[in-house]
């Protein structure tokens, strides 16, 4: 199913805009409650947040300057991580988030040369790489079919605005469904690597690397464009 802004997703006739609006409200409430901290973007602590960034940034070749779209950037936590991990690499960074409250905090803390932030549902530019940490995981109350259609739309947008590839992470499905009984756990979208690796290989005709075993019940997908499938700056729909 092709998902675009304003289109119907799932059997309950919910639009991508509907879901985006509720995701915005959820994370705006999180940052209002917890501030510009990992809990403000619904992560448990800075250490695990950083470990996720390590996996996602395996996508990028830091031996030369590159541009990066950070989808669902929150308050900009990836920015100091990049500065510490790649101190000599020139990175043209753009943070994109649905929440104005998040972007306001990000701009106050981290805006500067080659570090910009915008309020949007998708990137307004094509960059070398795109990453998204956590935005696929917190289903804000929609049927699984609708949430998965929303994810497919996000992945399609990321591929269309990435010259070289994109990286995302997902929570790993429980071995026993009975574990997901409390409300906080039940709202998390959990899945398996095979489902989304196969989707990306089929949808984008791109090789997919699955990274797991880094100490958390989740996995990271790195999707790299084939050279013959290059996207030009003037063709974000490629």
Description:
The radius of gyration is 17 Å and the shape is globular. It is built from seven helices and ten strands. The chain is of the alpha/beta class. β9 and β10 (218-224) form a beta hairpin. The model is unreliable at 1-13 and 177-183 (pLDDT under 50). Strands 3, 4, 5, 6, 7, 8, 9 and 10 form an eight-stranded mixed sheet that branches. Helix content is 34%, strand content 22%.
Quick summary of this structure?
The protein has 238 residues and is α/β, with parallel strands linked by helices.
Gap from first CA to last CA: 17 Å
Query: Can you tell me the residue ranges where pLDDT is under 50 for at least 5 consecutive residues?
Result: 1-13, 177-183
- The protein's oligomeric status is single chain
Number of helices: 7
Principal-axes shape call: globular
Order of helices and strands: EEHHEHEHEEHEHEHEE
- Structural class call reads alpha/beta
Name the helicity range: 25-40%
Q: What number is the mean pLDDT? A: 82
Main β sheet profile: 8 strands, mixed
**Rg value:** 17 Å
Q: Strand-residue fraction?
A: 15-25%
Number of strands: 10
């Amino acid at each position: 199913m092709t998902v675009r802004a304003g289109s119907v997703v799932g059997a309950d006739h919910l639009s991508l805009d509907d879901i985006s609006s509720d995701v915005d409200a959820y994370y705006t409430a999180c940052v209002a409650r917890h501030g510009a901290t990992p809990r403000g973007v619904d992560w448990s602590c800075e250490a695990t947040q950083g470990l996720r960034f390590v996996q996602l940034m395996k996508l990028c070749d830091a031996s030369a300057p590159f541009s990066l779209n950070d989808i669902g950037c929150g308050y900009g936590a990836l920015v100091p991580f990049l500065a510490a991990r790649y101190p000599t690499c020139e990175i043209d960074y753009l943070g994109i988030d649905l929440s104005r409250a998040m972007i306001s905090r990000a701009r106050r803390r981290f805006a500067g040369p080659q570090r910009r932030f915008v309020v949007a549902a998708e990137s307004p530019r094509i960059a070398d790489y795109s990453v998204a940490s956590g935005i696929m995981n917190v289903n804000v109350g929609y049927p699984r079919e609708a949430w998965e259609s929303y994810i497919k739309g996000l992945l399609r947008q990321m591929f269309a605005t990435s010259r070289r590839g994109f990286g995302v992470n997902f929570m790993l499905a429980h071995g026993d469904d009975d574990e997901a009984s409390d409300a906080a756990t039940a709202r998390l979208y959990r899945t398996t690597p095979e489902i989304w690796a196969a989707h990306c290989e089929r949808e984008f005709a791109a090789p997919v690397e699955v990274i797991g075993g880094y100490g958390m019940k989740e996995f990271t997908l790195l999707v790299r464009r084939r050279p013959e499938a290059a996207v030009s700056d003037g063709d974000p729909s490629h």
